[in-house]
């Protein structure tokens, strides 16, 4: 087998392979026998092999097509192994000589992984946030939990922050109703900031049965581009105002959040522990985002389009599953452009993280893996079952090991990078960690 490799552009390579005719003919003969076996042909006995000449006349073309494709695959992957090719994605085959009695020659076009030489970690600038759970954070959390279990009672009093109003509304821009600007029987908690600025403030003081008009402006960064920065008028009818009745801090309330106790101090202690775990995880998330940002900024690399295409397909599948996984819907109907930027970013990050792991000869730390499993286990009532699940499920544990390696990369970079520590609050850190990266 003769092999030559040339660079066509960027990460794309073209491999030319020559296969001796005798080697291909063996495959053609074998494939012809397979296809002809069991075929019923008028004039020939059932379950008896067809004469070779007849079999070749009837099935020779099909047998050669399949044999050539098999030979191209086999020869290509053999050449990949022998030439230590770092293949990224599947190749495209093109026979350039394919005639009976002659050597087979074909070209395989493919992409390879980029050679990544990482910039020194000390060149990275990283902002590292720090925070702690303060008493006022705990009080806010307990208050939030109470509001989650609030009972709503109709009132004739004027609505105030914290009250819930049931409203019908319709929005207009330049006198014209716009899509998505209408609702009936909508429950809105004042002060929740779930509506655009000015909307909830305009309903403070209303009573059941009132009708009012709100003049507001959509934010410049509103999710619907056609509404960004537009002035709007909302006509609102108030159907009902409800006041919240917060539950007592008693055993029933504690149990509702999985804390089996009647002691308020013990309940607060458990809530604080959860908040500390959440804060620690959020800080690690932000640190990871900062490190990744630095790696991307400091390391320009080519990204194989084949890997981006694979990631686009994964994102398409996730999108379909997120919206109910319609059985009759083909994910490939979703335009690739919707996912291309995100897919490119994911692949780029993956290549850089793998390069760091390889450069530092990292293996997943047993202590780090155990820590990550413990974090998950701590959120369940039966933590031992969670630990057993991961330890007895190699596939799931390998995912934890991959996360452990990523955290080890982050720690390695932070130890060498130019780090500026920034004091922050619990709420700011949690909010920032939940923002899209």
TrEMBL record:
GO terms for molecular function: peptidyl-prolyl cis-trans isomerase activity; protein folding chaperone; ribosome binding. Pfam families: FKBP_C, Trigger_C, Trigger_N. It catalyses: [protein]-peptidylproline (omega=180) = [protein]-peptidylproline (omega=0). Keywords: Cell cycle, Cell division, Chaperone, Cytoplasm, Isomerase, Rotamase. Transmembrane segments: none annotated. Its EC number is 5.2.1.8. GO terms for biological process: 'de novo' cotranslational protein folding; cell division; protein transport; protein unfolding. PROSITE patterns: FKBP_PPIASE. NCBIfam families: tig (TIGR00115). This is Trigger factor. It comes from Bacterioplanes sanyensis.
């Amino acid at each position: 087998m003769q092999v030559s490799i040339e660079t066509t552009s960027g990460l794309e390579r073209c491999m030319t392979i020559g296969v001796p005719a005798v080697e291909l003919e063996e495959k053609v003969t074998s494939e012809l026998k397979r296809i002809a076996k069991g075929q019923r042909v008028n004039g020939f006995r059932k379950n008896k092999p067809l004469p070779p000449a007849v079999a070749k006349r009837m099935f020779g073309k099909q047998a050669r097509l399949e044999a050539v494709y098999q030979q191209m695959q086999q020869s290509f992957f053999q050449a990949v192994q022998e030439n230590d090719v770092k293949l990224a994605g599947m190749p495209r085959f093109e026979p350039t000589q394919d005639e009976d009695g002659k050597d087979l020659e074909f070209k395989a076009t493919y992409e390879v992984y980029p050679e990544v030489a990482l910039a020194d970690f000390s060149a990275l600038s990283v902002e590292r946030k720090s925070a702690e759970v303060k008493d006022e954070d705990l009080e806010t959390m307990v208050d939030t939990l109470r509001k989650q279990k609030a009972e709503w009672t109709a009132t004739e009093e004027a609505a105030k922050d914290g009250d819930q109003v049931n409203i019908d509304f319709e929005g207009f821009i330049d006198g014209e109703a716009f899509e998505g600007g209408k609702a009936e029987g909508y429950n809105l908690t004042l002060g929740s900031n779930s509506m655009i600025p000015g909307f909830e403030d305009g309903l403070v003081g209303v009573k059941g049965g009132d009708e009012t008009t709100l003049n507001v402006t959509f934010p410049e960064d509103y999710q619907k581009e056609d509404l960004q920065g537009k002035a709007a008028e909302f006509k609102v009818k108030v159907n009902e105002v409800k006041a919240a009745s917060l539950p007592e801090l008693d055993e029933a309330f504690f149990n509702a959040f999985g804390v089996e106790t009647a002691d308020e101090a013990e309940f607060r202690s458990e809530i604080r522990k959860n908040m500390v775990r959440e804060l620690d995880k959020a800080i690690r998330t932000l640190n990871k985002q900062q490190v990744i940002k630095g790696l991307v900024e400091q390391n320009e690399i080519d990204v194989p389009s084949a890997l981006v295409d694979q990631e686009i397909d994964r994102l398409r599948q996730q999108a379909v599953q997120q919206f109910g996984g319609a059985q009759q819907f083909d994910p490939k109907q979703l335009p690739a452009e919707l996912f291309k930027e995100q897919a490119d970013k994911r692949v780029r990050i993956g290549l850089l993280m793998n390069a760091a792991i390889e450069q530092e000869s990292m293996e997943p730390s047993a202590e780090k893996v155990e820590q990550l499993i413990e974090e998950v286990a701590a959120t369940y009532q039966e933590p031992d079952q969670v630990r057993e699940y991961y330890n007895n499920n190699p596939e799931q544990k390998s995912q934890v090991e991959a996360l452990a390696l990523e955290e080890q990369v982050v720690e390695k970079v932070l130890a060498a990078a130019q780090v500026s520590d920034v004091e922050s609050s619990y709420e700011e850190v949690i909010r920032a960690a939940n923002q899209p990266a």
